[in-house]
Amino acid sequence: MVKVASGLVFVCMLLVTSVVYSQSNVKIERFRDLVTYLETHTQFKFAYPEKLANVTLTVNEGVNLNDPKHLQQWLAPYGIEVVRKGNLLIFRKRNKATKKITGFVRDAESGESLVGANVIDLASGKGVAANTFGFFSLDTSGDSIAVSFVGYTYNKLSIKNAGGELLIALPKEESVLEEVLISGNDIRELPEISTIRLSPDKIKKIPVFMGETDILKTLQLLPGVQAASEGTAGFQVRGGGPDQNLILLDGVPVYNANHLFGFFSVFNADAINSVELIKGGFPARYGGRLSSIVDIQMKEGNLHEIEGEGAIGLVASRVTVNGPIKKGKTSFMLSARRTYIDALTVPFAKLADSERIMGASFWDLNAKVNHILSPRDRIYLSFYSGKDRLYDDYSIDEVDMKEDEYAEIKWGNVTSAFRWNHKYTDQLFSNLTATYTRYQFELDRKVHYQYSDDTPDISRNNQYHSNISDVGLKMDFDYFLNNDHLIKFGANVVYHTLRPGVSNFRSHIQADTTFGSPEINLGEMYIYAEDEVTLSRTTRANIGVHYSAARAGSKTYTSWQPRFTINQRLGHALSVKASYARMAQYIHLLVNSGIGLPTDLWVPSTERVKPQLSDQVALGVSSVYKHFEISVEGYYKWMDNLIEYKDGAGFLDIDSEWENKVEFGSGKSYGAELFIQKKSGRSTGWIAYTWSKSTREFDNLNFGKSFPYRYDRRHNVSIVYNLAINDRIDFGAVWVYNTGNAVTLPTSTYPKATWNSNEPGYEDFVKHYPGRNSSRMKDYHRLDLSISFKKAKRWGERKWVFGVYNTYNRLNPMYIELDDEDRLNKKFRQLAIFPVIPHISYQFKF
């Protein structure tokens, strides 16, 4: 870590020293320096009040200090007015009073909120960002403002005669083929680090597995984010576990984000409005997880007209419709998706008269209603439900016996939220949210033996289920004190109900037997306050504190979590950022496998199992060069009170106390990330590189020695490229490279004893393991390609998408096993399940 940190410091120093500005060899930092310059370099006479002498100034590139008009424009944001009378320049403080401007920023076509849109006072150069619901409050001393949002037309608006609340409707850019460059002076740089925002339009352009647009797979292509394994939607962030990611859908936690064992995620991109990933520098308003926040907002619905879109693919189809219930007042959004893998595979198995019929399917549904009660009040009702089903029907009919076996696994999520926005004053905005979420997993296995003689039939039925559900209520406030202070504060209460795992066994000779963990309840709450503050024209910060508590049995856990992020601009296009965040997590995930199996169990903190804790520091440098955004970040994270299954333990162990199956330990991770991104123009995309290391340490695992985490990968590279060939044809490519997963493999075997068996020389072998996760799979890499053809139709637009997953047929290992067939020459065998896979889909929009 010392080497990584020193490297980052060197990069920072190099970039800082490369930014040099000179105005005729005169260094101007205060108003009195400007006076000195004017005295020695111009013929003007001037007058000014003494109180201006120590006003701090920053000379921008291109400012001509010899031109009074340039001086007027340059000094206006500092509240200094320049009056010219012949050869005399009079400098004075502007007396014009400021006024408060409030309103909402929305999409001109649909009325959707534009989350995070920049609203700038052109007189002072200061600005604010619209909140989650598009609301902003701005102090302005001028007659015009600028509004900008990525992918939308940059607008300058006159507010000279504006009254009441503004509704700013931004139209989308007419053509993405034109290069668009917005002046950095009109962009409000947020005090944040390790934060990336993605739009659904950007996500849909990226080649994906089986042609199914997937938000979580797109996140895996970002620096600091790793896929769990081949083809899966699960992910890990900066050395953390899958349970340490807080995934929010309209503010509601989603506990299992995977369809079909992780091959797809539960999020339908057609139903999504915005996606935000936070990996570090967490604002105080978030809590409950250690590694990341994925904040996903669903579409609100078009307030003006009916519109829709959908797709028909090889494995699934989807359709989304939204529009007004009452124009300009109430809107809806409805989206549905279903796979038909079972409809394709099962008939073929039946035609072949196969003894085994296997099938898999999933469906999901998103719905939302948005209603404007009044200019000050708005309500939203959102809902999600999804279900997966995997089954195996096996039957064999022999002369003396008939065997029937049926096994089925089902799992799914339900989330719902009611939101009420209220504007109390021009400065105070609130959002009340009531939430419900549930994740449930069920396993059912039935076996029946029927004999031809007088032997009684034998039947057995094993059932297993686990679930977690939450009921929550939270209140969030945004207080726009002025352009220098945006204060957020609020509180949240949530009640968890968990059933870590219950088994039921029934047979023809035995009554129902039930064993497993009883239902557990956990109450959790938090309060927070944060201030997004402008410390100077070049320094912004987010300073806050998050306090949380949880009641586990007779024990109450509490945690004070300070947070801060600071952003220091060093010139027109360079910023240095730093952050610290402490996080606490009161629920845990017991992981059986790394491929997104739904058998992973959610368990709470108890009197014995303490909450997980983490501390993370991050340092970064970001810059803008022409159309490229470049950032370099380093981080270090400490984690305590982590849990892992004991060696040999699993979710089906017959033990009523899950706490007896786990060990407690700590972990740490550190690394460096490079992100180069191009957002506009004919070609867009990014390059992401991560160097990282993640370890774990448990007293009773690996002899108490530190060992690599299962997802410890030293190098991760992602290259994403999109090209708009013309108005009708788009091309996309993705190349990824990862160091192989850490795995536990034996390095040698030796005979333990000779058995008294019918086979002379038959021996029992003992495997020698040098350490936990001490071996590595082969490195992972693949190339995905896609090309799409759009065509305008009378009813809208249609698009054909052709793609190839794993273009050069790299057989990346899913897992490795030991081949025991040859007892004297044992070999490892890798399983790869995804060769080159072509795909095609038909998409439409109306």
TrEMBL record:
It is found in: Cell outer membrane. Keywords: Cell outer membrane, Membrane, Receptor, Signal, Transmembrane, Transmembrane beta strand, Transport. InterPro entries: Beta-barrel_TonB_sf, CarboxyPept-like_regulatory, Plug_dom, Plug_dom_sf, TonB-dep_rcpt-like. SUPFAM superfamilies: Carboxypeptidase regulatory domain-like, Porins. Residues 211-289 form the TonB-dependent receptor plug domain. GO terms for cellular component: cell outer membrane. Coiled coil: none annotated. PANTHER family: HEMOGLOBIN AND HEMOGLOBIN-HAPTOGLOBIN-BINDING PROTEIN 1-RELATED (PTHR30069:SF29), TONB-DEPENDENT OUTER MEMBRANE RECEPTOR (PTHR30069). This is Outer membrane receptor proteins, mostly Fe transport.
